[in-house]
Amino acid sequence: MADIDEFYTKAKEKLEAENFQHGTPQDAIRSMCLEWLEWTVANDSKAVELLADAAKDTKGAYNAMENFARNKKGKGNCVKLEPLEAMACVMEYYGIAPGDAHNQLEAGLMYHLMMAECKKYKPYGVDEQAKATPVTDLENKPYEKPKLEEASPSFSFDDFDSELEGLL
After folding, report:
1. How far apart are CA 5 and CA 74, in angstroms?
2. Cα–Cα distance measured from residue 127 to residue 19, given in angstroms and rounded to the nearest whole number
3. Residue 39: CA count within 13 A, CB half-sphere
4. 146 in helix, strand or coil?
5. CB of 15 within 8 A of CB of 34?
6. Structure confidence at residue 92 (pLDDT)
7. What is the mean pLDDT, run by run of 10 residues, along the chain of 168 residues?
8. What is the pLDDT of residue 80?
9. How many angstroms separate the Cα of 132 from the Cα of each of 17, 25, 105, 110, 118?
10. What is the pTM for the complete model shown?
11. Which of 21, 43, 87, 139 is buried most, with the most CB atoms less than 10 Å from its CB?
12. What is the DSSP string of 42-57?
């Protein structure tokens, strides 16, 4: 039986060998699968072996998404799949159980995919460290609910009514 490194190498080579026009849905799926592969290795999931399966490819994942969308749309001419739905459909195509797919997506995979997509569009000439926002300060700061009287001390419904009467 092959180990995880062999499956990883096989899956990465298979996905990188697929060639699609930039910007097509198939190219986006291939990109998501490559990021999913990276996340899987770091999070010890069985998906490395599933992505290495020679019988499964990006075209098949796209067709599975297309069939899912057709069944979802009802009577309309087109349908929109949310990113979470689309990736769950791809994961199910590769062999992840539907419940497990959503659990993995909610446990950090979707965040990983979105951050990988955001990195593609960083401004030119900006160092990644320089533009990073320190999130830890926001996470550690407790939320303070504003007091009602502090939020709008000068507002009165009587003033509002008199303004409306002037308009009528």
Report:
1. 43
2. 30
3. 20
4. coil
5. yes
6. 92
7. 78 85 83 88 80 87 87 66 87 89 88 86 66 55 60 56 56
8. 73
9. 33, 29, 24, 20, 12
10. 0.66
11. 87
12. HHT-THHHHHH-TT--
